[in-house]
What we know:
Elements: H1 2-25, H2 33-59, H3 65-93, H4 104-127
Helix pairs in contact: 1-2, 1-3, 2-3, 3-4
Pfam family, one: DUF423
Keywords: Membrane, Transmembrane, Transmembrane helix
Subcellular location: Membrane
Amino acid sequence: MILLTQFFGALYGLLAVVFGAFGAHALKKSFTEDQLGSFETGVKYQMYHALVLLILSFNLGFNSDLEIAMAYCFIVGTFLFSFSIYGLCLTGSKGKKLRFLGPITPLGGLLLVAGWGLLLYSFIQKLI
């Protein structure tokens, strides 16, 4: 689980830099301000959670179901949240918005919130 978390942390970090540069340069001419803002939100959340995954992978042993669930929430949540935003922005700029992606974004966000909640719970457990 440690290697999987490190893999996704590094992959998401790499792709966040690539997508951020792509958005700032290549998409600037074809996106509206709202689309650029949304795309940037996806990139920021992807990078934040790439860093979280890397930090967790170096600090947790993933010996408990709680730690494993937390990692999966961050991995899957990041994918659903950020990549659905990218899909909505890219298809929206072409006038063919894939509307089925709309409900996926909040599902990804919910998984991210769950990951943070599990992290908080793991700290509370240690305090009690």
